[in-house]
Automatic annotation (TrEMBL):
Any one GO biological process: protein transport to vacuole involved in ubiquitin-dependent protein catabolic process via the multivesicular body sorting pathway
Molecular function in Gene Ontology: acyltransferase activity, transferring groups other than amino-acyl groups
Coiled-coil segments on the chain, per record: none
Family: Belongs to the SNF8 family.
Species of provenance: Strongyloides stercoralis
The name this protein goes by in its record: Vacuolar-sorting protein SNF8
UniProt GO cellular component terms: ESCRT II complex
Domain N-acetyltransferase: 300-464
InterPro entries from the UniProt entry: Acyl_CoA_acyltransferase, ESCRT-2_cplx_Snf8, GNAT_dom, Snf8/Vps36, WH-like_DNA-bd_sf, WH_DNA-bd_sf
A Pfam entry, by short name: EAP30
């Protein structure tokens, strides 16, 4: 008779045996880990020693070369302590000294910009204030690192990010709210905002908008401009100085060429109302063709276009271009949708330039061939016009120079500047060729004027060190075909 049996449970001996095996595995794992850590530590010590020897040997080159300094510091941050820079390389002293100079510049400009300064403006002032005998170059990255060192002293210095990787540096105590930062970002394009612009772009209620504006005015970060007839403009000093002040320090004009420059500080004017007036000595604007100077009584001044200039803009465009623009386009010009500026003589608009910056993929199909990288940025010149009585005075050249120097300096991400012109507009063709532009494409039936189609040219000038390899390849193909065409004809003639 079969007897029923029951399964026996796990005994104590089996449990102990399993624990012993696990302990052996753990001990072996710890042994291997210790060996690996020791090996890694030895390799790291060797690398750090070699790195210190290299830094000591080339310390002067590292301090002089800003790009080398940045990459070298990023690498060393992973393998060395903070004391490494001060004791071995001396770069720590470089940044501490730069931090002190940053503080000095910010304090000296607080009464002008309310305690906000762009990193580009700060860098320009630092380079100007440093001794000419010093060889170290200063980059924006150096300034950011220096400001980070200042932040350990408290909340007196903060970095406020803008679009495109740019920063504002706040040098006054107190924190800006998220709403304050969004308004500053909105003002980056034109240097100012309006109540209507904020409500439209940010979708805010009027009460919220007024609260932010009043706070910025109270803190001295915004100035009120009551000159426009339709609505007040609220200018951010640090941003509009970045856009307009380069007119003074640009390569095309020097401080000696200024006839006047004044800007009423909010400290000396009730309600933070500011007057903006930038005047350039007419003698500094020479005629590139016949070396004549513009002789004016009231002076010639370069200003950005605003709502009050709308009738003059329309009249100048209608005089200069066969193409008729809609009223909505003119309104966009004065609302800040484009980069628009011009020269004024006795408050009369004598000339204008209108441009826009977008990614190349946002332009028309025929223009996207300008860059092989569809995410690259391009600046398009929509209009360049000079009144007939002011032509052949070098004004157009000065407008273009301001664009190609100051505007591009503030927009280093731009790869190409381009425009369109009629194939029979020989004056424009000669002008742009003389100033470094080349014909990139012929556009068939591009213009429709009075019911008749006309061909156009696309002129392009690659900037900021960019070389479009696709265009270079096409040029090489054309060149080689031109070279080898006679050879092929000769071979064909011999074979026949």
């Amino acid at each position: 008779k079969a007897m029923a049996t029951r399964r026996r449970g796990v005994g104590v001996g089996a449990i102990q045996q399993k624990q012993q095996v696990q302990a052996q595995y753990a001990a072996k794992g710890e042994e291997l880990a210790s060996e690996q850590i020791a090996n890694f530590s030895q390799q790291l010590d060797t690398f750090t020693k070699k790195l210190e020897e290299f830094a000591y040997k080339h310390r002067n080159e590292i301090k002089k070369n800003s790009q080398f300094r940045r990459h070298f510091q990023e690498m060393c941050a992973h393998v060395a302590s903070k004391g490494f820079w001060a004791s071995k390389l001396g770069v720590g002293d470089f940044y501490y000294e730069l931090a002190v100079q940053v503080i000095e510049v910010c304090l000296s400009t607080n009464h002008i910009n309310g305690g906000l300064i762009t990193i580009n403006d700060l860098r320009t002032r630092l380079l100007k204030s440093r001794s000419k005998t010093r060889k170290e170059n200063i980059t924006n990255d150096d300034i950011l690192r220096a400001v980070q060192k200042i932040k350990v002293l408290g909340n007196g210095f903060e970095l406020l990010p803008l679009e495109g990787g740019r920063f504002l540096i706040q040098s006054i105590p107190g924190e800006l709210s998220m709403d304050d930062s969004r308004v500053l970002q909105l003002a980056e394009e034109t240097g100012f905002v309006t109540i209507e612009l904020i409500m439209d772009r940010l979708r805010w209620e009027e009460a919220r908008t007024l609260q932010v504006i009043e706070h910025l005015i109270k803190e001295g970060l915004a100035w009120v401009d009551e000159q426009p007839s339709d609505t007040n403009q609220y200018w951010i000093p640090s941003l509009f100085l970045q856009q307009y002040y380069p007119i003074i320090g640009s390569s095309g004009s020097t401080e000696s060429s200024l006839s006047s420059f004044y800007c009423v500080s909010p400290i000396t004017r009730k309600n933070n109302i500011c007057c903006k007036y930038w005047s350039i000595n007419p003698a500094s604007i020479t005629d590139d063709l016949n070396n004549e100077n513009i002789s004016t009584d009231g002076g010639l001044k370069l200003c950005y276009l605003s709502q009050k200039d709308l009738p003059a803009i329309k009249a100048l465009c209608q005089e200069s271009f066969p193409v008729q623009y809609p009223d909505t386009w003119y309104q966009e010009v004065v609302d800040g949708a484009f980069i628009s500026f011009g020269y004024f003589y006795n408050d009369i608009l004598t000339s204008l330039m209108i441009c826009e910056i977008k990614q190349i993929k946002e332009y028309e199909t025929e223009d996207r061939k300008l860059l092989s990288d569809h995410n690259g940025f391009a600046l398009y010149i929509l209009s360049l016009a000079v009144r007939s009585e002011f032509r052949r005075k070098g004004i157009a050249k000065n407008l273009l120079n301001y664009l190609m120097t100051d505007i591009l300096k503030e927009n280093s991400h731009i790869n190409v500047v381009f425009l369109h012109a009629l194939t029979h507009n020989y004056g424009a063709i000669k002008f742009y060729k003389k100033n470094g532009f080349k014909i990139h494409t012929t556009l068939r039936n591009y213009y429709l004027i009075d019911g008749i189609y006309y061909d156009g040219y696309t002129f392009a000038c690659y900037v900021n060190g960019y070389n479009d390899f696709k265009w270079c390849l096409e040029t090489m193909k054309i060149f080689t075909s031109w070279i080898f065409c006679p050879v092929r004809s000769l071979i064909k003639h011999v074979l026949m």
